[in-house]
Structure to design on (577 residues):
Protein backbone atom coordinates (compact mmCIF):
# COMPACT_ATOMS: atom_id res chain seq x y z
CA UNK A 1 0.00 0.00 0.00
CA UNK A 2 1.31 3.47 -0.90
CA UNK A 3 0.54 6.79 0.84
CA UNK A 4 1.05 9.90 -1.33
CA UNK A 5 1.48 13.40 0.16
CA UNK A 6 1.61 16.72 -1.67
CA UNK A 7 1.69 20.18 -0.02
CA UNK A 8 3.76 21.89 -2.72
CA UNK A 9 1.62 25.00 -3.15
CA UNK A 10 -1.62 26.52 -1.83
CA UNK A 11 -3.20 23.29 -3.07
CA UNK A 12 -2.64 20.07 -1.18
CA UNK A 13 -3.56 16.46 -1.82
CA UNK A 14 -3.35 13.08 -0.07
CA UNK A 15 -4.05 9.66 -1.61
CA UNK A 16 -3.85 5.95 -0.80
CA UNK A 17 -2.98 3.62 -3.68
CA UNK A 18 -2.78 -0.18 -3.72
CA UNK A 19 -0.62 -0.51 -6.83
CA UNK A 20 -3.58 -0.74 -9.18
CA UNK A 21 -6.27 1.71 -8.06
CA UNK A 22 -6.47 4.84 -5.97
CA UNK A 23 -8.58 3.76 -2.97
CA UNK A 24 -9.14 7.22 -1.53
CA UNK A 25 -7.98 10.73 -2.27
CA UNK A 26 -8.54 14.23 -0.95
CA UNK A 27 -7.49 17.40 -2.75
CA UNK A 28 -8.12 20.80 -1.24
CA UNK A 29 -7.18 24.47 -1.26
CA UNK A 30 -5.13 24.57 1.91
CA UNK A 31 -3.63 28.05 1.38
CA UNK A 32 -1.18 28.31 4.29
CA UNK A 33 -2.87 25.81 6.56
CA UNK A 34 -0.92 22.68 5.43
CA UNK A 35 0.72 22.36 8.80
CA UNK A 36 -2.66 22.18 10.53
CA UNK A 37 -4.63 20.21 7.96
CA UNK A 38 -2.23 17.59 6.65
CA UNK A 39 -2.37 15.10 9.51
CA UNK A 40 -6.15 15.13 10.02
CA UNK A 41 -6.45 14.60 6.24
CA UNK A 42 -4.01 11.69 6.25
CA UNK A 43 -6.02 9.98 8.97
CA UNK A 44 -9.29 10.59 7.13
CA UNK A 45 -8.00 9.30 3.77
CA UNK A 46 -6.52 6.19 5.42
CA UNK A 47 -9.79 5.43 7.14
CA UNK A 48 -11.83 6.01 3.94
CA UNK A 49 -9.58 3.60 2.09
CA UNK A 50 -10.07 1.02 4.81
CA UNK A 51 -6.34 0.94 5.52
CA UNK A 52 -4.06 1.65 8.43
CA UNK A 53 -0.48 2.88 8.36
CA UNK A 54 0.58 -0.62 9.45
CA UNK A 55 -0.08 -1.85 5.90
CA UNK A 56 1.61 1.10 4.21
CA UNK A 57 5.01 0.05 2.88
CA UNK A 58 5.59 2.83 0.38
CA UNK A 59 5.39 6.62 0.72
CA UNK A 60 5.56 9.07 -2.19
CA UNK A 61 5.98 12.80 -1.68
CA UNK A 62 5.91 15.75 -4.07
CA UNK A 63 9.26 17.57 -4.07
CA UNK A 64 8.44 20.70 -6.03
CA UNK A 65 9.47 23.11 -7.22
CA UNK A 66 6.94 25.05 -5.16
CA UNK A 67 6.61 26.84 -1.85
CA UNK A 68 9.71 25.95 0.18
CA UNK A 69 7.86 25.83 3.47
CA UNK A 70 4.90 23.95 2.00
CA UNK A 71 7.17 21.34 0.41
CA UNK A 72 9.01 20.76 3.66
CA UNK A 73 5.74 20.12 5.52
CA UNK A 74 4.96 17.07 3.36
CA UNK A 75 8.57 15.91 3.07
CA UNK A 76 9.23 16.06 6.82
CA UNK A 77 5.91 14.29 7.47
CA UNK A 78 6.72 11.64 4.85
CA UNK A 79 10.16 11.09 6.37
CA UNK A 80 8.62 10.61 9.82
CA UNK A 81 5.93 8.26 8.52
CA UNK A 82 8.44 6.26 6.45
CA UNK A 83 10.75 5.98 9.46
CA UNK A 84 7.91 4.93 11.76
CA UNK A 85 6.50 2.31 9.37
CA UNK A 86 9.79 1.19 7.78
CA UNK A 87 8.28 2.14 4.43
CA UNK A 88 10.29 3.02 1.32
CA UNK A 89 10.16 6.75 0.50
CA UNK A 90 10.31 8.31 -2.95
CA UNK A 91 10.25 11.96 -4.07
CA UNK A 92 8.55 12.99 -7.33
CA UNK A 93 8.65 16.45 -8.89
CA UNK A 94 5.39 18.37 -8.54
CA UNK A 95 5.65 19.50 -12.17
CA UNK A 96 5.97 15.85 -13.28
CA UNK A 97 2.78 15.04 -11.35
CA UNK A 98 0.93 17.88 -13.07
CA UNK A 99 1.93 16.81 -16.60
CA UNK A 100 1.45 13.04 -16.14
CA UNK A 101 -2.36 12.80 -16.58
CA UNK A 102 -2.02 14.50 -19.97
CA UNK A 103 0.54 12.05 -21.36
CA UNK A 104 -2.08 10.17 -23.36
CA UNK A 105 -2.97 13.34 -25.33
CA UNK A 106 0.50 13.15 -26.93
CA UNK A 107 0.43 16.94 -27.01
CA UNK A 108 3.49 18.81 -25.87
CA UNK A 109 2.63 19.85 -22.32
CA UNK A 110 3.93 22.62 -20.10
CA UNK A 111 3.18 22.48 -16.36
CA UNK A 112 3.15 25.76 -14.53
CA UNK A 113 3.10 26.78 -10.88
CA UNK A 114 3.29 30.22 -9.27
CA UNK A 115 6.75 31.13 -7.91
CA UNK A 116 6.24 34.35 -6.01
CA UNK A 117 5.01 37.69 -7.28
CA UNK A 118 5.95 37.77 -10.95
CA UNK A 119 7.57 34.43 -11.64
CA UNK A 120 6.43 30.91 -12.45
CA UNK A 121 8.01 27.49 -12.22
CA UNK A 122 7.66 25.48 -15.40
CA UNK A 123 8.80 22.35 -17.20
CA UNK A 124 8.02 20.97 -20.68
CA UNK A 125 6.98 17.37 -21.44
CA UNK A 126 6.77 15.61 -24.75
CA UNK A 127 6.49 12.13 -26.24
CA UNK A 128 9.42 11.15 -28.40
CA UNK A 129 9.99 7.60 -29.71
CA UNK A 130 6.95 6.53 -27.71
CA UNK A 131 8.51 7.76 -24.49
CA UNK A 132 6.76 10.51 -22.52
CA UNK A 133 9.39 12.47 -20.61
CA UNK A 134 10.31 15.83 -19.23
CA UNK A 135 12.28 17.53 -22.02
CA UNK A 136 13.40 20.69 -20.19
CA UNK A 137 15.12 21.55 -16.93
CA UNK A 138 12.98 22.92 -14.09
CA UNK A 139 12.68 26.57 -15.02
CA UNK A 140 11.75 29.69 -13.09
CA UNK A 141 11.07 33.13 -14.51
CA UNK A 142 8.45 35.58 -15.77
CA UNK A 143 5.87 34.28 -18.28
CA UNK A 144 7.45 36.32 -21.09
CA UNK A 145 10.68 34.42 -20.65
CA UNK A 146 8.97 31.05 -20.38
CA UNK A 147 6.95 31.78 -23.53
CA UNK A 148 10.20 31.99 -25.47
CA UNK A 149 10.83 28.30 -24.71
CA UNK A 150 7.48 27.32 -26.24
CA UNK A 151 7.92 26.49 -29.93
CA UNK A 152 4.96 24.53 -31.14
CA UNK A 153 1.38 24.04 -29.88
CA UNK A 154 1.55 23.40 -26.16
CA UNK A 155 -1.00 22.33 -23.59
CA UNK A 156 -0.75 24.34 -20.38
CA UNK A 157 -1.60 22.67 -17.09
CA UNK A 158 -1.15 23.64 -13.45
CA UNK A 159 -2.15 26.58 -11.31
CA UNK A 160 -3.10 29.48 -13.55
CA UNK A 161 -5.53 32.26 -12.79
CA UNK A 162 -7.39 34.11 -15.53
CA UNK A 163 -4.67 36.73 -15.78
CA UNK A 164 -1.94 34.14 -16.38
CA UNK A 165 -4.09 32.42 -18.98
CA UNK A 166 -4.74 35.74 -20.76
CA UNK A 167 -1.03 36.61 -20.71
CA UNK A 168 -0.11 33.26 -22.25
CA UNK A 169 -2.80 33.66 -24.91
CA UNK A 170 -1.49 37.13 -25.73
CA UNK A 171 2.11 35.91 -25.91
CA UNK A 172 1.51 32.69 -27.85
CA UNK A 173 -1.79 33.12 -29.68
CA UNK A 174 -3.23 29.83 -30.98
CA UNK A 175 -0.14 27.90 -29.91
CA UNK A 176 -1.32 28.06 -26.29
CA UNK A 177 -3.83 25.32 -25.45
CA UNK A 178 -5.49 24.98 -22.08
CA UNK A 179 -6.69 21.89 -20.28
CA UNK A 180 -10.08 22.09 -18.52
CA UNK A 181 -9.64 23.75 -15.13
CA UNK A 182 -10.65 20.62 -13.20
CA UNK A 183 -8.06 18.54 -15.03
CA UNK A 184 -5.30 21.04 -14.27
CA UNK A 185 -5.57 20.45 -10.55
CA UNK A 186 -2.80 18.42 -8.97
CA UNK A 187 -4.04 15.16 -7.47
CA UNK A 188 -2.05 12.85 -5.23
CA UNK A 189 -3.47 9.81 -7.07
CA UNK A 190 -1.17 10.63 -9.97
CA UNK A 191 1.72 11.21 -7.60
CA UNK A 192 0.98 7.76 -6.14
CA UNK A 193 1.13 6.08 -9.55
CA UNK A 194 4.40 7.78 -10.46
CA UNK A 195 5.85 7.02 -7.03
CA UNK A 196 4.90 3.35 -7.23
CA UNK A 197 6.54 2.99 -10.62
CA UNK A 198 9.65 4.86 -9.52
CA UNK A 199 10.06 2.57 -6.51
CA UNK A 200 9.92 -0.45 -8.82
CA UNK A 201 12.82 0.97 -10.81
CA UNK A 202 15.09 2.54 -8.21
CA UNK A 203 16.63 1.52 -4.94
CA UNK A 204 15.60 3.29 -1.78
CA UNK A 205 17.73 6.31 -0.88
CA UNK A 206 18.37 7.66 2.63
CA UNK A 207 15.33 9.52 3.98
CA UNK A 208 17.33 12.72 4.54
CA UNK A 209 18.25 12.79 0.85
CA UNK A 210 14.63 13.41 -0.14
CA UNK A 211 14.40 17.19 -0.21
CA UNK A 212 12.67 19.96 -2.13
CA UNK A 213 13.86 20.91 -5.61
CA UNK A 214 15.24 24.34 -4.76
CA UNK A 215 15.25 26.14 -8.10
CA UNK A 216 15.69 29.43 -6.29
CA UNK A 217 18.26 30.56 -3.75
CA UNK A 218 17.10 31.40 -0.23
CA UNK A 219 16.00 34.94 0.27
CA UNK A 220 17.45 36.60 3.32
CA UNK A 221 14.66 37.80 5.53
CA UNK A 222 13.61 38.17 9.11
CA UNK A 223 10.86 36.68 11.19
CA UNK A 224 10.26 35.50 14.77
CA UNK A 225 10.37 38.76 16.71
CA UNK A 226 14.00 39.60 15.96
CA UNK A 227 15.64 40.35 12.64
CA UNK A 228 17.59 37.25 11.69
CA UNK A 229 19.21 38.42 8.48
CA UNK A 230 22.97 38.71 8.35
CA UNK A 231 23.47 42.45 8.73
CA UNK A 232 26.12 43.67 6.31
CA UNK A 233 27.38 46.63 8.35
CA UNK A 234 27.63 47.42 12.00
CA UNK A 235 25.56 50.58 11.67
CA UNK A 236 22.79 48.64 10.00
CA UNK A 237 23.27 45.76 12.42
CA UNK A 238 22.81 48.02 15.38
CA UNK A 239 19.77 49.70 13.89
CA UNK A 240 21.30 53.16 13.86
CA UNK A 241 20.79 55.86 11.26
CA UNK A 242 23.51 55.99 8.62
CA UNK A 243 26.43 58.19 9.56
CA UNK A 244 27.65 60.70 7.04
CA UNK A 245 31.20 59.63 6.20
CA UNK B 1 7.94 6.75 30.53
CA UNK B 2 10.36 7.23 27.64
CA UNK B 3 9.93 10.21 25.36
CA UNK B 4 11.69 10.79 22.06
CA UNK B 5 11.90 14.57 21.69
CA UNK B 6 12.66 16.72 18.66
CA UNK B 7 13.86 20.34 18.76
CA UNK B 8 14.24 22.43 15.56
CA UNK B 9 13.06 25.90 16.58
CA UNK B 10 16.22 27.75 15.56
CA UNK B 11 19.59 26.54 14.29
CA UNK B 12 20.20 23.31 16.23
CA UNK B 13 18.81 20.04 14.88
CA UNK B 14 18.35 18.06 18.08
CA UNK B 15 16.75 14.78 19.16
CA UNK B 16 16.88 13.17 22.60
CA UNK B 17 15.42 10.26 24.52
CA UNK B 18 14.44 11.15 28.09
CA UNK B 19 13.10 8.84 30.79
CA UNK B 20 10.44 10.09 33.23
CA UNK B 21 11.18 13.69 32.38
CA UNK B 22 14.59 13.63 34.03
CA UNK B 23 17.06 10.99 32.96
CA UNK B 24 18.82 11.56 29.64
CA UNK B 25 19.24 8.35 27.68
CA UNK B 26 20.43 10.09 24.52
CA UNK B 27 20.90 13.72 23.52
CA UNK B 28 22.14 14.41 19.98
CA UNK B 29 22.63 18.01 18.86
CA UNK B 30 23.77 18.90 15.34
CA UNK B 31 24.71 22.57 15.10
CA UNK B 32 24.30 24.19 11.72
CA UNK B 33 27.65 25.48 10.56
CA UNK B 34 26.15 27.50 7.68
CA UNK B 35 25.19 30.41 9.94
CA UNK B 36 28.72 31.06 11.14
CA UNK B 37 29.62 32.25 7.66
CA UNK B 38 26.71 34.71 7.48
CA UNK B 39 27.19 35.83 11.08
CA UNK B 40 23.47 35.38 11.78
CA UNK B 41 20.66 32.97 11.18
CA UNK B 42 18.98 32.94 7.77
CA UNK B 43 15.59 31.26 8.41
CA UNK B 44 15.34 29.56 5.01
CA UNK B 45 18.85 28.11 5.38
CA UNK B 46 18.01 26.86 8.89
CA UNK B 47 14.88 25.07 7.63
CA UNK B 48 16.81 23.43 4.77
CA UNK B 49 19.52 22.18 7.10
CA UNK B 50 16.96 20.76 9.57
CA UNK B 51 15.27 18.73 6.85
CA UNK B 52 18.59 17.32 5.66
CA UNK B 53 19.85 16.40 9.13
CA UNK B 54 16.79 15.49 11.20
CA UNK B 55 16.19 11.83 10.30
CA UNK B 56 19.89 11.03 10.75
CA UNK B 57 19.96 12.80 14.11
CA UNK B 58 16.85 10.89 15.26
CA UNK B 59 18.40 7.58 14.21
CA UNK B 60 21.57 8.47 16.11
CA UNK B 61 19.56 9.31 19.25
CA UNK B 62 17.82 5.92 19.20
CA UNK B 63 21.18 4.20 18.66
CA UNK B 64 22.76 6.13 21.56
CA UNK B 65 19.82 5.17 23.80
CA UNK B 66 20.11 1.55 22.65
CA UNK B 67 16.40 1.56 21.90
CA UNK B 68 14.09 0.76 19.04
CA UNK B 69 11.27 3.16 18.22
CA UNK B 70 8.72 0.67 19.59
CA UNK B 71 10.32 0.92 23.04
CA UNK B 72 9.42 4.62 23.22
CA UNK B 73 6.12 5.72 24.86
CA UNK B 74 5.55 9.15 23.31
CA UNK B 75 6.98 11.52 20.67
CA UNK B 76 7.45 15.21 21.46
CA UNK B 77 8.51 18.22 19.42
CA UNK B 78 8.90 21.95 19.91
CA UNK B 79 5.89 23.75 18.42
CA UNK B 80 6.94 27.31 19.32
CA UNK B 81 8.19 29.92 19.77
CA UNK B 82 10.72 29.88 16.96
CA UNK B 83 11.29 30.21 13.24
CA UNK B 84 8.12 28.92 11.63
CA UNK B 85 9.80 27.12 8.73
CA UNK B 86 12.26 25.45 11.09
CA UNK B 87 9.55 24.46 13.60
CA UNK B 88 7.42 22.92 10.84
CA UNK B 89 10.20 20.48 9.89
CA UNK B 90 10.63 19.07 13.40
CA UNK B 91 6.96 19.08 14.34
CA UNK B 92 5.80 17.35 11.14
CA UNK B 93 8.57 14.76 11.22
CA UNK B 94 7.65 13.99 14.84
CA UNK B 95 3.92 13.83 14.10
CA UNK B 96 4.61 11.44 11.20
CA UNK B 97 6.72 9.28 13.48
CA UNK B 98 4.03 9.31 16.19
CA UNK B 99 1.18 8.47 13.80
CA UNK B 100 3.18 5.66 12.18
CA UNK B 101 4.30 4.17 15.47
CA UNK B 102 0.88 4.57 17.12
CA UNK B 103 2.26 6.85 19.85
CA UNK B 104 0.89 10.07 21.35
CA UNK B 105 2.34 13.32 20.02
CA UNK B 106 3.18 16.06 22.53
CA UNK B 107 3.73 19.62 21.30
CA UNK B 108 6.09 21.52 23.60
CA UNK B 109 6.70 25.21 24.29
CA UNK B 110 10.41 25.81 23.75
CA UNK B 111 10.65 28.19 26.73
CA UNK B 112 9.14 25.55 29.03
CA UNK B 113 11.92 23.33 27.71
CA UNK B 114 14.58 25.79 28.87
CA UNK B 115 12.98 25.85 32.35
CA UNK B 116 12.69 22.05 32.59
CA UNK B 117 16.33 21.60 31.55
CA UNK B 118 16.88 22.11 35.29
CA UNK B 119 15.23 18.73 35.99
CA UNK B 120 17.57 16.74 33.72
CA UNK B 121 20.46 14.50 34.75
CA UNK B 122 22.72 11.98 33.07
CA UNK B 123 24.15 10.10 36.06
CA UNK B 124 22.90 6.91 37.70
CA UNK B 125 21.56 8.71 40.78
CA UNK B 126 18.89 11.35 40.48
CA UNK B 127 19.78 14.72 42.03
CA UNK B 128 16.89 16.31 43.98
CA UNK B 129 14.29 18.16 41.93
CA UNK B 130 14.36 21.96 42.15
CA UNK B 131 12.01 23.17 44.88
CA UNK B 132 9.12 25.41 43.92
CA UNK B 133 8.14 28.19 43.83
CA UNK B 134 11.11 29.54 41.90
CA UNK B 135 12.20 32.59 39.99
CA UNK B 136 13.42 31.61 36.53
CA UNK B 137 15.46 33.72 34.12
CA UNK B 138 15.27 32.41 30.54
CA UNK B 139 17.90 34.19 28.48
CA UNK B 140 18.94 33.31 24.94
CA UNK B 141 19.45 34.63 21.43
CA UNK B 142 15.72 35.12 21.08
CA UNK B 143 14.36 35.53 24.63
CA UNK B 144 14.96 37.35 27.89
CA UNK B 145 12.10 36.48 30.21
CA UNK B 146 11.99 36.69 33.98
CA UNK B 147 9.20 34.44 35.28
CA UNK B 148 7.78 33.28 38.57
CA UNK B 149 7.21 29.52 38.54
CA UNK B 150 4.54 28.96 41.18
CA UNK B 151 4.25 25.22 40.55
CA UNK B 152 4.66 22.75 37.71
CA UNK B 153 3.65 24.46 34.48
CA UNK B 154 2.28 27.47 36.38
CA UNK B 155 4.21 30.47 35.18
CA UNK B 156 3.74 34.19 35.76
CA UNK B 157 5.70 36.67 33.66
CA UNK B 158 7.48 39.24 35.85
CA UNK B 159 9.48 41.05 33.20
CA UNK B 160 11.06 40.73 29.82
CA UNK B 161 13.22 42.64 27.40
CA UNK B 162 11.39 45.52 25.81
CA UNK B 163 13.68 45.51 22.76
CA UNK B 164 16.47 43.04 21.89
CA UNK B 165 17.01 39.66 23.49
CA UNK B 166 20.16 39.46 25.60
CA UNK B 167 21.78 36.88 23.33
CA UNK B 168 21.12 39.12 20.37
CA UNK B 169 22.91 42.00 22.14
CA UNK B 170 25.89 39.69 22.69
CA UNK B 171 25.86 38.77 18.97
CA UNK B 172 25.76 42.37 17.83
CA UNK B 173 28.50 43.61 20.15
CA UNK B 174 30.66 40.60 19.22
CA UNK B 175 30.27 41.50 15.56
CA UNK B 176 31.14 45.12 16.32
CA UNK B 177 34.32 43.99 18.09
CA UNK B 178 35.28 41.67 15.24
CA UNK B 179 34.59 38.54 17.30
CA UNK B 180 32.81 35.43 16.00
CA UNK B 181 29.24 34.10 16.02
CA UNK B 182 27.48 33.24 18.27
CA UNK B 183 28.58 36.21 20.34
CA UNK B 184 27.92 34.92 23.88
CA UNK B 185 30.89 32.56 24.25
CA UNK B 186 33.12 34.90 22.21
CA UNK B 187 32.42 37.89 24.47
CA UNK B 188 32.89 35.76 27.58
CA UNK B 189 36.27 34.52 26.34
CA UNK B 190 37.46 38.03 25.41
CA UNK B 191 36.14 39.50 28.68
CA UNK B 192 38.31 37.14 30.77
CA UNK B 193 41.37 39.19 29.77
CA UNK B 194 39.69 42.55 30.25
CA UNK B 195 38.86 45.02 32.99
CA UNK B 196 35.09 45.15 33.59
CA UNK B 197 35.32 48.64 35.09
CA UNK B 198 37.39 50.06 32.21
CA UNK B 199 34.43 51.88 30.65
CA UNK B 200 31.24 52.98 32.38
CA UNK B 201 28.19 51.88 30.37
CA UNK B 202 24.46 52.44 30.95
CA UNK B 203 22.43 49.84 32.83
CA UNK B 204 20.39 47.45 30.72
CA UNK B 205 17.20 47.72 32.76
CA UNK B 206 14.15 49.84 33.38
CA UNK B 207 13.75 51.24 36.89
CA UNK B 208 10.82 50.12 39.11
CA UNK B 209 9.96 47.20 36.82
CA UNK B 210 11.40 43.79 36.08
CA UNK B 211 11.85 44.61 32.40
CA UNK B 212 15.22 44.67 30.67
CA UNK B 213 16.36 46.83 27.78
CA UNK B 214 19.50 46.38 25.73
CA UNK B 215 19.15 48.93 22.95
CA UNK B 216 20.57 51.88 24.92
CA UNK B 217 23.49 49.75 26.04
CA UNK B 218 24.39 48.54 22.57
CA UNK B 219 24.16 52.08 21.16
CA UNK B 220 26.53 53.23 23.93
CA UNK B 221 28.93 50.41 23.04
CA UNK B 222 28.82 51.44 19.39
CA UNK B 223 29.63 55.06 20.29
CA UNK B 224 32.39 53.94 22.63
CA UNK B 225 33.98 51.75 19.95
CA UNK B 226 33.81 54.55 17.36
CA UNK B 227 35.49 56.96 19.79
CA UNK B 228 38.19 54.43 20.67
CA UNK B 229 38.77 53.60 17.00
CA UNK B 230 39.56 57.23 16.31
CA UNK B 231 42.32 57.10 18.91
CA UNK B 232 43.96 53.81 17.92
CA UNK B 233 43.44 50.07 18.29
CA UNK B 234 40.28 49.19 20.25
CA UNK B 235 40.96 47.46 23.60
CA UNK B 236 38.62 44.59 22.71
CA UNK B 237 38.99 42.72 26.02
CA UNK B 238 38.16 45.80 28.12
CA UNK B 239 35.12 46.70 26.00
CA UNK B 240 33.88 43.08 26.09
CA UNK B 241 34.34 42.92 29.87
CA UNK B 242 32.59 46.24 30.45
CA UNK B 243 29.67 45.26 28.22
CA UNK B 244 29.34 41.84 29.84
CA UNK B 245 29.34 43.44 33.29
CA UNK B 246 26.54 45.84 32.31
CA UNK B 247 24.37 42.95 31.04
CA UNK B 248 25.16 40.62 33.92
CA UNK B 249 24.57 43.31 36.57
CA UNK B 250 21.16 44.16 35.15
CA UNK B 251 20.01 40.55 35.06
CA UNK B 252 21.42 39.64 38.47
CA UNK B 253 19.82 42.71 40.05
CA UNK B 254 16.36 41.86 38.65
CA UNK B 255 16.64 38.18 39.59
CA UNK B 256 17.73 38.95 43.16
CA UNK B 257 14.97 41.49 43.66
CA UNK B 258 12.27 39.16 42.23
CA UNK B 259 13.48 36.28 44.42
CA UNK B 260 13.24 38.44 47.54
CA UNK B 261 9.86 39.97 46.67
CA UNK B 262 8.15 36.64 45.94
CA UNK B 263 9.93 34.68 48.70
CA UNK B 264 10.76 31.76 46.43
CA UNK B 265 12.77 28.68 47.36
CA UNK B 266 14.95 28.39 44.25
CA UNK B 267 16.49 30.55 41.55
CA UNK B 268 16.82 28.90 38.14
CA UNK B 269 18.43 29.90 34.86
CA UNK B 270 17.90 28.60 31.36
CA UNK B 271 18.76 29.41 27.76
CA UNK B 272 22.05 29.88 25.94
CA UNK B 273 23.06 33.03 27.81
CA UNK B 274 22.75 31.12 31.12
CA UNK B 275 25.91 29.30 30.06
CA UNK B 276 27.78 32.56 30.80
CA UNK B 277 29.84 31.92 33.93
CA UNK B 278 30.01 35.61 34.92
CA UNK B 279 26.19 35.65 35.04
CA UNK B 280 26.07 32.56 37.26
CA UNK B 281 28.71 34.00 39.58
CA UNK B 282 27.00 37.37 39.92
CA UNK B 283 23.57 35.86 40.65
CA UNK B 284 25.10 33.48 43.18
CA UNK B 285 26.78 36.46 44.87
CA UNK B 286 23.53 38.41 45.17
CA UNK B 287 21.23 35.73 46.54
CA UNK B 288 21.56 33.10 49.25
CA UNK B 289 18.91 30.83 47.68
CA UNK B 290 19.85 27.60 45.93
CA UNK B 291 20.79 28.48 42.33
CA UNK B 292 20.09 25.87 39.66
CA UNK B 293 21.76 26.22 36.28
CA UNK B 294 21.87 23.40 33.73
CA UNK B 295 25.33 22.42 32.42
CA UNK B 296 26.25 24.57 29.38
CA UNK B 297 25.23 22.00 26.75
CA UNK B 298 21.76 21.80 28.33
CA UNK B 299 21.49 25.62 28.46
CA UNK B 300 21.73 25.91 24.69
CA UNK B 301 18.93 24.39 22.58
CA UNK B 302 18.68 20.61 22.84
CA UNK B 303 16.14 17.82 22.57
CA UNK B 304 16.45 16.59 26.17
CA UNK B 305 14.86 19.73 27.58
CA UNK B 306 11.89 19.20 25.24
CA UNK B 307 11.62 15.62 26.45
CA UNK B 308 11.61 16.83 30.07
CA UNK B 309 8.98 19.50 29.41
CA UNK B 310 6.85 16.99 27.47
CA UNK B 311 6.82 14.60 30.42
CA UNK B 312 5.69 17.29 32.87
CA UNK B 313 3.20 18.57 30.35
CA UNK B 314 1.58 15.10 30.28
CA UNK B 315 1.75 14.75 34.05
CA UNK B 316 0.42 18.23 34.87
CA UNK B 317 -1.86 18.45 31.92
CA UNK B 318 -4.08 21.51 31.69
CA UNK B 319 -6.41 21.26 28.71
CA UNK B 320 -5.52 20.41 25.14
CA UNK B 321 -1.86 19.70 24.27
CA UNK B 322 -0.95 21.89 21.31
CA UNK B 323 -0.01 20.27 18.01
CA UNK B 324 0.11 23.40 15.81
CA UNK B 325 3.30 25.37 15.40
CA UNK B 326 3.36 29.07 16.29
CA UNK B 327 6.23 31.52 15.84
CA UNK B 328 5.31 33.28 19.06
CA UNK B 329 4.14 31.41 22.12
CA UNK B 330 4.54 33.06 25.50
CA UNK B 331 5.57 31.08 28.56
CA UNK B 332 3.15 32.97 30.74
ZN1 LIG C 1 16.28 28.34 23.10
Amino acid sequence: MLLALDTSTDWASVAVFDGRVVLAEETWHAQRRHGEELFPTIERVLSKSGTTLASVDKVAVATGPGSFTGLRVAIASAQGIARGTDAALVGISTLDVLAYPHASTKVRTCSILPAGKHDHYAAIYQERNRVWKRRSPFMVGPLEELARQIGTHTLFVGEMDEEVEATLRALLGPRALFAAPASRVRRAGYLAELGWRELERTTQSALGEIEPIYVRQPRIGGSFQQPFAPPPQDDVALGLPKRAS
Amino acid sequence: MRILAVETSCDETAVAVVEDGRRIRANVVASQAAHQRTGGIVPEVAAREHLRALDGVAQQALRDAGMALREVDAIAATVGPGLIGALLVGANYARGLALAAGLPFVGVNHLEGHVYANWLYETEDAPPEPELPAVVLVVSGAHSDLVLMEGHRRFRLLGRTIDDASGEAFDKVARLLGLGFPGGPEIERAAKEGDPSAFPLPKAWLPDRYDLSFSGLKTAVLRLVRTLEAKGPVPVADVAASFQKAVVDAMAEKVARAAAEHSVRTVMLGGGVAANSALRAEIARRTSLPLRVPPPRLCTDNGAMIGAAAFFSLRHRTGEIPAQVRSSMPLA
